[in-house]
Please model this.
Amino acid sequence: MKYHQLIKSIIALALLGAGSTIFIGCGGPPDMGGSSAALADDVASQVYVPPGEYDEFYAFMSGGFSGQVSVYGLPSGRMLKVIPVFSLDAEKGYGFNEETKPMLETSHGFIPWDDSHHPELSQTDGETDGRWLFINGNNTPRIARIDLTTFETAEIIEIPNSGGNHSSPFTTENTEYVVAGTRFGVPYPQQDVSIDSYAEKFKGTLSFISVDPEEGHMDVAFQVLLPAFNYDLAHSGKGKSHGWTFFTTYNTEEKSTLLEVNASQNDKDFIAAINWKKAEEYIKQGKYKEMPAKYAHNIYNEKTHTATSEMKDKVKVLIPEECPGLVYFLPTPKSPHGVDVDPSGEYIVGNGKLSADMAVHSFTKIQEAIANESFETTIDGIPVLKYDEILAGIVEKPGLGPLHTEFDGKGNAYTTYFISSEIVKWDIETQQVLDRIPTYYSVGHLMIPGGDSRKPDGKYMVALNKITKDRYLPTGPELNHSAQLYDISGDKMKLLLDFPTIGEPHYAQAIAADKVMPNSKKFYPIEENEHPYRTVREKDARVEREGKDVHIYMTSIRSHFAPDNIEGIKVGDRVYFHLTNLEQDWDVPHGLAVLGAQNAELLVMPGQTETLVWEPKAEGVYPFYCTDFCSALHQEMQGYLRVSPANSQVALDWRLGYDEPVQ
Amino acid sequence: MLLGIVCLMSLFVFPMWQIILYAPQYPDGVEMHIYIDKIGGSSPGTLQNVNILNHYVGMPYIEPDDIPELQYFPYIIGAMGLLGLIALAINKKWGYLSWTIVLIVLGILGMYDFYLWEYDYGHNLSDTAPIKIPGASFQPPLIGRKQIINFIADSWPHIGGIGFGLSMVFGGAAWWARKKQLTS
Model:
């Protein structure tokens, strides 16, 4: 650097320094209103649930990139349970024990992780009914069903021809279907092609997964083949719009690289409106193509306590060009993220993420536009309705970066604004802004119990925030995400509580406790246990050898395993601990941990059987013990397993107590 | 008199006695039901749960097959029902009176027998019990409420037991009514 340039730089820096000193001296960080001083005085009593008393609502929060679902009580924010869904959970042995491994099978083999985004409660007549909770797996496209009598994952179905199952599961109003839309366009059928062939070779599928009304079992009923837009979120119609499902799109530009720029060029993208009642007619008429597809369907059986995985090989596909009236595109500004249908079913809110204003469509006007054929154009045989003719109104400049809207059942809508980090309350009919409140920080979804159903419970609202920063005691670079609870019973929204959550609380659903609590099971009746390796009486406990496989039919009851001394195991054996928990009382699980086991513990509920596989590598005597503090003699609940050399003559033997000595 | 027989027969349907153990970690209580022919409870696992509790202090395992009373009680009650019907048929003052007296005697014997069993379970403790508490008695109350270490134990008649009591009252009433009928 030359001498005079250096002088210039120093002068410039000095001026800059002086300038900023003046600036800081004048200002300093402004008060952002995030401290507890901003709270009203009586909030503590509103969220205080005294010891021994119950919360008013169950809240089911997705774990996001943890792949699980966590259950919280509202208004206290107390965590009740983490339900393993798409990811291994060593704590509960989920995906580690032999019984639950099939739950994580896919067409790509065993997948130990996923990204769970949107919990969705089952509905009857548009109201949450407390039977099941569905949630999507984003990365390896799947939908899971959680049984709310056991709070366990009961079923997982893979979605074929999809890449990134984001717009899912979003139920119809009687849980006829849960849906799945592909976030990525993918070659259809999947094949080795140039990425530059995106516009011609890639497609987007929207899938309708039927749900059996009695058992809840899922099946991919049909897929609708659409252009390779990115299908972002969905909601099904309700009331007058029952029979329709709406999917938002971005990247209608159909680009494959630098999407943050290239997919943000069109002023309007679309909401794809699917008439699924019409689809049912076309299916009945046989107007579908049966396409090869490989996808796994995994069901957990509560009687055998075992999951089975079945590979499916075809799927019914509807092509819009051949099925008039099946799909319409609703132009919506700009890269709409959430699409939310108000409790009456009339208003369809397109949360135009990159738009200054927010468009609200009218279902009645949509029907009129379809009847009058008011189409701007058609894309692949799909009519694009005229924007001006379907619009109910616009929420003008409500905030920056609208993502999601929920409803309170009292005529109000609540929309999250990611960029301006706030929630705005507005009137659905007039689209007038009524109130706004900050979130801490960068809110994604929001949740009102029943807030996407026909009957919202408009008392509380939860903001699900992406960024935590300084809200809690710091824990190094990685921080939990957070949730904030607001009182929305009055005209003004009021912040009540702020609590950290597991993984990313991407979306959540909540339901009145009395719809779920009475059905919650306390234990599994032992007489209903149909596990092939069950041991329902302690005296039947035994060890059997089949070649190199050794099956231990083991029981647990306070406070011992039967048998607890086992000899005659050899190096190179594959040892199956089939542990049946004989307890028949509430909250008496027994765990089993074996030294050197390369999986996890078992955590067996009363009446249940689970299997841990253990492969001894070296001779010796190995201890095992109960991991769940079960009783006053829990620490004594332990045993030994003797491992002899592969060529040893030590006979297979076992015992409990000294009545029968080990030979 | 017929009412008395019906009340007595309730023993075939409902438990005669109940013992309920309360402790903070058992919010619903452990509710054991004693029938004339079996031992049950408010849940199918109750007997197992009671035995699990008992084993810490070495109390004998309650095994219904080892309690002979559960075998012959149904016959006694059945026979009393038959005798009642006979008393009703012959409709004599002495018939009702003696039926009632036999019932009362049976009731007293039954309670004494129950006490003996309770005493045995509460005192006949295993030498190898994991927990030994010097001076503690684990015998449940014959009737009423008692603290047994960390539990509050309630012992009361159940519907069948109340039926048994009522059958005595109705038997006595039949005797009294017959007497009045004869004197008038």
Notes: Residues 18-25 of chain A have pLDDT under 50 and may be disordered. Helices of chain A lie at 3-26, 43-47, 198-201, 259-262, 276-284, 363-371, 387-390.
